[in-house]
Write a structure and sequence with these properties.
Blueprint lengths: L19 H9 L13 E4 L7 E7 L4 E7 L12 H11 L9 E5 L11 E5 L18 H19 L17 H16 L8 H9 L8 E3 L8 E4 L2 E8 L6 E3 L1 H9 L9 H4 L14 H12 L7 H23 L11 H20 L1
Antiparallel strand pairs: 1-2, 2-3, 3-5, 4-5, 6-9, 7-8
Length: 363
């Protein structure tokens, strides 16, 4: 067992605290196991994540750990941070994708809950979340690391194979036309969120609009599938027991989803400034290269793909858009995590990488 490697939670940041008594009063009327519990939970905050806020609710009697997910404090993008949509998606998906955490309560009207927003509470999956580097205590050699990588990719393959119509998830998105909507939508969002100290990305946006490929299909996509959104079994760290952060899941093109994942896939032979962005252990000996990931995914799904350049650049541009939206909130004083202060520099790095790849493709 590797209990010591399970993600710790910390006291909430000063401007992101919750009223434990109010949260408990709301929960005890909705969770049978808490109906007779008088003492409120200890509330801690998980430091990871750059979009929504994630809290640990720790009860002593009964011994119970729950996780509360809420939007960030302050201004939010109009269509982002929809907690009710995320909770309903997870509830519908759980019977056919067992790695989804169990939702136990949803606040679908801010006026009816203890927070000034909608939120939901789910069961905690206690496990290891792979972050920047694989812990040495796991003792993974290159062969076992490769198997871990394949096991994680297999969950993406399994997700893309879900019968979303049978699962009642047809309401999630419009499906057809997804590629065009994404390029237009992220171009608009980036322009709206741009601050004076970041590049304009106009050359990248123009290239994406001019090089849009035919759609490769429509399936349920996660839209943020990466190592630090999976949970590994402490008793068998090669086994994935949870997939987290379903906020952006929708119906869309699976190769766009794979491109999103590979935007985070930083290797030791990448340019130094891009390596600064690494937040998951994709450089560990045994991890697949980006080219091997694409080949493995296509072999498992039977989806043919020729040149993956468009999807790679889209993933990097979309990541820049996400970071810039967060950075804008930080600049405006609406996001408190001090790590967000460096996101403007990361956006600049991403534009340079996109332009380098475009130049290589043109050459």
């Amino acid at each position: 067992m590797h209990e010591a490697l399970i993600d710790p939670a910390r006291p909430p940041r000063s401007r992101e605290t919750l009223d434990a008594a109010a949260v408990h009063d709301w929960l005890r009327r909705r969770v049978p196991a808490l109906a007779e519990v008088a003492a409120p939970p200890e509330i801690l905050q998980f430091p990871g994540g750059a979009s929504n806020l994630t809290y640990l609710l720790r009860y002593t009697t009964p011994a119970l750990e729950l996780v509360l997910r809420s939007p960030p404090f302050g201004h939010k993008a109009k269509s982002a941070h929809d907690m009710v949509r995320e909770a309903r998606l997870m509830t519908a998906l759980a019977p056919v994708f067992p790695e989804v955490p169990a939702v136990v309560a949803v606040c679908d009207a801010a006026a009816d809950g203890p927070l000034d927003c909608e939120f939901y509470v789910m069961a905690r999956i206690r496990g290891i979340i792979p972050r920047t580097d694989l812990p040495a205590a796991l003792g993974l050699d290159a062969a076992r690391t490769r198997q871990l990588c394949l096991n994680v990719l297999c969950r993406l393959v399994a997700l893309h194979a879900v019968d979303w119509q049978a699962a009642g998830l047809g309401h999630l998105g419009r499906g057809e036309g997804y590629v065009q909507r994404q390029i237009e939508g992220w171009s608009r969002r980036y322009r709206d969120a741009r601050t004076p100290d970041v590049p304009d990305f106009e050359g990248v946006m123009a290239w994406l609009a001019a090089n849009r490929p035919p759609e490769s299909g429509i399936c349920l996509i996660h839209n943020d599938f990466r190592f630090d959104n999976v949970v590994l079994d402490p008793a068998d760290p090669l086994r994935v027991i949870g997939v987290l952060d379903w906020e952006m899941a929708t119906l869309g093109d699976p190769l766009m989803d794979l491109g999103n994942s590979l935007a985070y896939w930083v290797r030791d032979d990448d340019e130094p400034m891009f390596q600064v962005m690494r937040r998951q252990p994709t450089n560990a000996p045994g991890m697949l290269s980006r080219e091997e990931v694409v080949a493995y995914y296509c072999a498992q799904t039977g989806r043919p793909v020729g040149d993956f350049t468009f999807y790679s650049i889209y993933g990097l541009f979309r990541l820049a858009g996400i970071l810039q939206q967060i950075y804008q909130r930080f600049v405006q004083g609406n996001a408190q995590n001090p790590q967000f202060g460096m996101f403007g520099s990361l956006v600049t790095v991403l534009e340079a990488r996109c332009l380098r790849i475009i130049g290589g493709a043109a050459g």
